[in-house]
Amino acid sequence: MPLQLSEVKTESEIIDIVTVAHEAYSEPLNTFWEVFKGPSIAECSARVWSWHGEEQPGSHWLKITDVETNETVGAAQWIIHTSNPYEMPEPPLKAYWWPEGGHRSAKTPHLGAIKSMSDQVMEHFMANRPRRMNRPHLLVNACFVLASQRRRGAGRLLMEWGCKKADEMGLESFVESTPDGRALYEAHGFVVVDQILLDPVPDEGKEPTEEWKKVKREIVPRPFPILFMWRPDGGKYEEGKTKYSWG
User: Fold this and answer.
1) Which residues, in sequence order, are CB contacts of 111 under 8 Å at separation 6+?
2) Beta-strand runs (E) in 48-109
3) Which of 37, 39, 65, 114 is a good FRET partner for 16, with 20 to 30 A between their CA atoms?
4) Helix, strand, or coil here: 186?
């Protein structure tokens, strides 16, 4: 069954790919997505669409469709930065999409703990970006494929699109990957330069409450590794010879 890549143009397509992301990132569990997805698909879709269209002019969402079934099986967001996106310092991004408290559903009622934990995860996850991504570059901000559709070439198509753009523009690229995605990115010229562990803790001086422990078991059952990966211009990295572009 052939696969087709196309660029996302409408809000309805965003809703479709966010729905796919919810499923794709659950197998295996992706802690960052658990934090990022927010209280509902509708809220997440509206936020992603706003960021894509209004706040990030270099954003390109791509989707992969099974031609025979017309099913969306995966997607990726490449962001093209033609200048330093961190030239003007900004405060850490908080998980404002989670309410401070109250009850959302029987499954995730502890929104106070979710908000606090999510703020920590977002700050830790984003911390490396201003220091290392402070030049023109491309960023793989998201990439996912349904578990049932993996190993069909969807990930390869999504990577080829952005790597070709990067090479045409003479720019380096970055991605923050899970260990499961590492092989895909390495096959396209990315190398691991650092690792962080997402493992939120209670506020300083406070003991973890039962609410905190319950939420952590649900979304961060164990420290979650994130691999900071870099692709030099042209995708050719030689150990001991290629120099990182940041200080």
Assistant:
1) 39, 98, 99, 100, 101, 102, 103, 104
2) 59-66, 71-81
3) 114
4) helix
Tokens of 68: 């025979």
The one-character DSSP state at 94 is: P
Read off the pLDDT of residues 107-146 as tens digits, 9 standing for 90 and up.
555 667 899 899 999 999 999 999 999 999 999 999 999 9
pLDDT at 101 over 70: no
H/E stretch holding 33: helix 31-36
**C-beta neighbour count of 16 within 10 angstroms:** 18
Residue type (1 letter), 99 = P
Cβ pair 66, 145 in contact under 8 A:
no
Q: Check if the beta carbon of residue 69 is closer than 8 Å to that of residue 1.
A: yes
pTM equals 0.93
Q: CB-based burial of residue 28 (10 Å sphere; 0-12 exposed, 13-18 middle, 19+ buried)?
A: exposed
Structure-block tokens of residue 190: 């990315």
